[in-house]
Design a protein that fits this description.
Function: A flexible structure which links the flagellar filament to the drive apparatus in the basal body.
Helix content: 10-25%
CATH topology of the largest domain: Tick-borne Encephalitis virus Glycoprotein, domain 1
Largest sheet: 12 strands, antiparallel
CATH architecture of the largest domain: Sandwich
Structural class: mainly beta
Shape: rod-shaped
Distance between the termini: 21 Å
CATH class of the largest domain: Mainly Beta
Protein name: Flagellar hook protein FlgE
Family: Belongs to the flagella basal body rod proteins family.
Keywords: Bacterial flagellum, Cell projection, Cilium, Flagellum
Subcellular location: Bacterial flagellum basal body
Length: about 425
């Protein structure tokens, strides 16, 4: 009888419509991975095996297979949104437990405790204080303290065609020197331990000796000591004739009680002495210019935002221009992703069928990279799904027709006299 075949076909068609409907319903779900219904035939076996003349007895749904193809990447402008381009899943911790689960949904945000979360699931990775240990990433720095400047590296170009100033550079004075007493000057902003800014001013004075310059320094409005200049001597190629020892600036006691400079005596406080490394300074005919400037201090700052690199480093940005590493995101890949168990909320859990979890930083091993300020769209193609829906509908109608035809045949047999 054809009833059994028709009924099995109706069940299979209904399951296919369920799968198609779920795919269509999640066409706009970020990180969603579509599924497809897979079928197998049913065959009756006799005591002596399957006869070549035996007809099949229907079909069954053998599996609903997940399809982990890449979805389109859409830019969002939200710095905490992340998309995985390539293989791998974000590793997140289930709320209230230590269980690690997996997702492709990168719509992250900060909760009230500073954890990076998605629907309550906490994003995990390596933290600066525990490298190699997977734990939830937390932004606990609402501000960053000031750091006293310890050293300055300043390389300039002094003009080779400059003439000796007509006014002698002054002796110990508390006011700025006469501009006619030096050839060039530049200022560098430095910071003390409280984040207060100060100015270190460098004055370059051409001497009567060929290729020779004297450098004077001044800290804020402190008295200048003309007796302690640093001499720079240049060779015929415009380079320093030899290494120059760093210029030491003893700033004395700061009015605000702060300190500046390195902690050479290791007492926990800066020693109020700055150094300026002028190696790299040149003497060419071009105009005076600052070619290289590096300082290591900064004022205090507040958190202004977060950024994520394609390698998965989450960094906090502060108003003083400083960047601090919050953590390193990890991605988890599986030998058989189709073996993962979907749990809803765009979450999968590992199973023995999926294989062992392979944890890597983005771009390493077999995992992809991260694109920040973007999300991965659902991999559903609506056109294909609508065609599949039509096919499943016709499949259902055809199986219903076989049942109807079988019923007509039975009715004919019953009516025989």
């Amino acid at each position: 009888m054809g009833f059994q075949q028709g009924l099995s076909g109706l069940a299979a068609a209904s399951k296919q419509l369920d799968v198609v409907g779920n795919n269509v319903a999640n066409a706009n779900t970020v990180g969603f991975k579509g599924s497809r219904a897979e079928f197998a035939d049913l065959y009756a076996a006799s005591l002596y095996g399957v006869s070549s003349a035996q007809a099949g007895i229907g079909t069954k749904t053998s599996a609903v297979a997940q399809q982990f193809t890449q979805g389109n990447i859409t830019n969002t402008g939200n710095p905490l949104d992340m998309a995985v381009f390539g293989n791998g899943f974000f590793t997140v911790q289930r709320p209230g437990t230590n269980e690690l689960v997996y997702t492709r949904n990168g719509q992250f945000k900060l909760d009230n405790q500073g954890f990076i979360v998605n629907n309550g699931y906490q994003l995990t990775g390596y933290t600066p204080d525990a490298p190699g240990v997977i734990k939830p990433l937390q932004v606990d720095a609402g501000s960053i303290g000031a750091k006293a400047t310890t050293a300055i590296k300043l390389a300039t170009n002094v003009t080779a065609t400059a003439t000796v100033p007509t006014v002698a550079f002054p002796g110990a004075v508390a006011t700025a020197p006469d501009p006619k007493s030096y050839n060039h000057s530049t200022s560098v902003t430095v910071y003390d331990s409280l984040g207060t800014s100060h100015l270190v001013t460098m004055y370059y004075v051409k001497t009567t000796n060929p290729g020779e310059w004297q450098v004077y320094t001044r800290f804020d409005s402190n008295t200048m000591a003309a007796a302690t200049p640093t001499t720079l001597t240049f060779d015929a190629n415009g380079r320093l004739a030899g290494p120059v020892a760093p210029i030491a600036i003893n700033v004395g006691t700061l009015p605000n009680g702060a300190a500046i400079g390195p902690d050479a005596d290791l007492d926990g406080y800066p020693d109020n002495t700055l150094t300026v490394d002028v190696n790299g300074t040149t003497q060419f005919a071009s105009a005076f210019a600052v070619n290289n400037l590096v300082t290591d201090g900064y004022t205090d700052g507040v958190l202004t935002g977060l950024v994520t690199t394609k390698e998965g480093k989450v960094q906090a940005k502060f108003s003083n221009g400083q960047v601090k590493d919050v953590g390193q995101i990890v991605l988890t890949n599986f030998r058989n992703p189709q073996g993962l168990a979907p749990q809803g909320d765009n979450i999968w859990t590992s199973t023995p069928e999926a294989g062992d979890a392979q944890v890597n930083t983005p771009g390493a091993g077999a995992v992809g990279v991260i694109q920040s300020a973007a999300v991965e769209d659902s991999n559903i193609d609506l056109t294909t799904e609508l065609v599949n829906m039509i096919t499943a509908q016709r499949f259902y109608q055809a199986n219903a027709q076989t049942i109807k035809t079988q019923d007509q045949i039975l009715q004919t047999l019953i009516n025989l006299r």
